[in-house]
Amino acid sequence: MRRSGWLFWVCTAILGAPGLLGAADGRAPITISSDTLELNRKARVAVYRGNVAANDRARGINILADQIEFFFDERMEELERALATGNVRLSYGERRGVAERVEYYPAESRAVLIGRPKVWQNEDVVSGCRITLFLRDDRSQVEGCEGERVNAVLYPKRGGEAPAGGPRR
Predict the structure, then answer these.
(1) What pTM does this model have?
(2) Does any domain span residue 168?
């Protein structure tokens, strides 16, 4: 395939996908940069490798990883899920997270951090075996591994306000 034809399909698959990383109105810019990109329309997947940075400005989500795979619907128009692997770091709002792997489901606004995951909000930190972030609902679920418990370090806030992971007064 000629270079211009290949470039057209890459742009169509990425830019023409309104569900990519959850762009709310199709106008907010979504940027993805990496060392390489491999697009397989038959398998409905785009794989970015090497120093991958994905930024969804509509939802305020940034993901950095060694590799991110984007899995599309049959028409290559909607993102069904994304899988980030290797040194994954994400940020959204005031929160930051790290994990070996992050699965992102845009239709549900849900991210699952697996492999020594940790999530910070300001100084507070929580860790476990698996952390599920329900981004739309501003809630999370932390699970411990077999034989291990969930760990949290929560700092008291000024003015009697409870820590982010603790009860409200």
Answers:
(1) 0.77
(2) no
